[in-house]
Structure formats: structure tokens, C-alpha cells
Amino acid sequence: MIVGVALDGPSPAVVAVGDGAPPSQAVRACVAVDLDGIPRAPVAAIRVGGPCPPVLRPVADPGVATIVRGGHSLTGRPLAPLDTGAVREFAAGCGLVDFAVTATGSPMLADHELAVAAIIAAEVPAARITLSYEFGRPGLREREAHAIRNAALGPEAGRIADRVARELPGVPVFFARTGSGLVSAHYFRRFPRACDRGGTTSLRRGRAALATADVPAPFQVIESAGDDLLAAAYGAALARPEAQVERIVQARGRAELDRALQDARDEALTRVVSAGAAPGFARIAETTVNPLSYLPDGFYRVRVTAEGATP
């Protein structure tokens, strides 16, 4: 049996899909929740790059932000050595544990983001660190905004995951992604930004399924707080684990591009397993490759989506 859980509302809606057994006997719980309006933690944001006008500086609200020297161009060319001293001083003195790190050029080469993360971990052992390259967007400010929001949502996402685990002890828990798919509770804690609009996505999916198909005979409402919560819970229960990888790669020929694509596919398969897919049932669902017209020939934006079945 699968349990769909909708958390948006005064009380949760729980839907049983399967053999009608009690939720405690579920093989998995699929949670639909929107993260708009939940408490956000103060974030220490670090941008690795050059100076910029005040209006373009990083903003962490609530939190603090700084810019340190370093970064790469989108072709992977170093712009400046990483100012490790400035990173160390900021990490040790900011008084926060949730960090967002964004370096120029990191979708092509993430070395400086990884180096900053290592310094933060040494200075703040309890730190939770989000790196912008993991979101793949080529635009610096878009990646930075995603990284800061992910870091800000992290602590409350952990509390949400803990709450569901307490209410359904021993049941594997998954969370609906924005757009499509599910991720494991572990993945949700690490990348809550991926589930920002999971409730809205599940509601749309559930409404469509209920409107176009007969509800399976075992489908039943265990507890309801309204029709929309009911539909959102059902939509979450219908989803499958999914993960995406987006990168900028350089390839000087077809063979080099094929190797880069295989690396991205391998990373996507690893991510979808981390998101809860059974290793033997993970597969590549979609690969897109687009040449980047604003860079020299041989640079491509690669996006790979992997999906799978739960164990």
C-alpha cells in the first residue's frame, strides 16, 4: 500500500492507495507540501567572484552576505585565485550554520565552490552547506537565489521530515517535487528547494487523475481536511522518484561530447538513487543538449532527467 499525505492545511489529509490496510502498514508515504510561508533560517551567503555595484550584490534575507575574490569564466578560465583567508574569516565570524556558496563559472568548473565548502566545514563543523553548481543554472544570480533559498528552507524541511517520520514510524517517506516526481526524505532535507511547490504540483496531478480515470477500488480516505487536500495527497501517491542534472560542458568533437553526456547520465542515475529509486530500476528519462551561442564553439548546456521505481 502507498500512503499519500497532504500537509497544507489545518490538519493533514491522508489517502490510502493499495490494499486498504492501515497507514502504519504502508510500503511508502508520499508527501505533498508547498514550502511558501514556512519559517526560513538566516543564511550566510558567499559569492566567489569580482566586485560589483551594490544593487547586484548577493542578498540573504534573513542573514548576511559577502563577496570574496575568485571564480572562473563560463569557459573554465580562472578569473582570480580564491581568497581563502576571506572565506575563513567570514565563516568563522558570521555566527551562522546555514551557508549558500555561489561561484562565477561553477556550472562549468565547481572547484572554487568545493574549496569554499571545505573551508566552511573546517571552521564551522555543524555547518549545512548548499553549493549553487548543484542547481545547474548558468546565470549567476539565478543560481545564487536558488542556493540561498535552499539553505534557508533546510532547517524547517528537516523538522517537516521528522514530523512525518514520527507520525508514520518505520514507513519510507518521499516528498513530491516541483513539476514532477518524488525525492526521498534524505534528499528533501538536503535539497528542499526541489520540492518548493510539491503541494501545488501534486494537487494538479491528483485532480487530473481523479477527473480522467476511475479511482482504484482500494482507494480510500483515511482522514480528510477538504477535497483539494484529498486530491493533493492522491497526486503525491501517484508520483515516482526523479532527479535532474544540469551542466555546461566543453566538447571538441562528438566523442568528447558523448563522454560528457555519459558523465552527466551517470550523475543523474546516482542522484535518482539518492532520491529513493531502487538501483536496478533507475533509468534516464530525458537528455537535452543545446549549443551555447554566446560562448565559443564546443560549449553545450546539458540537462539529464532520471527516474525510477521505489524499492
Can you describe this structure?
- The chain is of the alpha/beta class and 311 residues long.
- 34% of the residues lie in helices and 24% in strands.
- It is built from seven helices and 13 strands.
- It has helices at 84-93, 111-123, 140-167, 185-190, 198-212, 227-238, 254-274, and strands at 2-6, 13-17, 28-32, 43-48, 63-68, 98-103, 128-131, 173-176, 182-184, 220-223, 242-250, 283-291, 299-307.
- The strands form three sheets. It has a six-stranded mixed sheet with strand order 9-8-3-1-2-10. A four-stranded parallel sheet has the order 5-4-6-7, sandwiched between helices. Strands 11-13-12 form a three-stranded antiparallel sheet, with helices on one face.
- Strand 1 and strand 2 (13-17) form a beta hairpin.
- The two termini are 13 Å apart.
- Mean pLDDT is 87; it is low at 217-225.
Present the secondary structure layout.
Elements: E1 2-6, E2 13-17, E3 28-32, E4 43-48, E5 63-68, H1 84-93, E6 98-103, H2 111-123, E7 128-131, H3 140-167, E8 173-176, E9 182-184, H4 185-190, H5 198-212, E10 220-223, H6 227-238, E11 242-250, H7 254-274, E12 283-291, E13 299-307
Helix pairs in contact: 1-2, 5-6
Key terms for this structure?
alpha/beta; four-stranded parallel beta sheet; 7 helices; 24% strand; globular
Number of helices: 7
Range of helix content: 25-40%
Helix-and-strand structural type: alpha/beta
Describe the sheet with the most strands.
Answer: 6 strands, mixed
Q: What would the average pLDDT be, to the nearest integer?
A: 87
**How much strand?**
15-25%
DSSP strand count: 13
**SSE string:** EEEEEHEHEHEEHHEHEHEE
Uncertain ranges: 217-225
Distance between the termini: 13 Å
Strand order, largest beta sheet: 9-8-3-1-2-10
From the alpha-carbon coordinates, what is the Rg to the nearest angstrom?
21 Å
Shape: globular
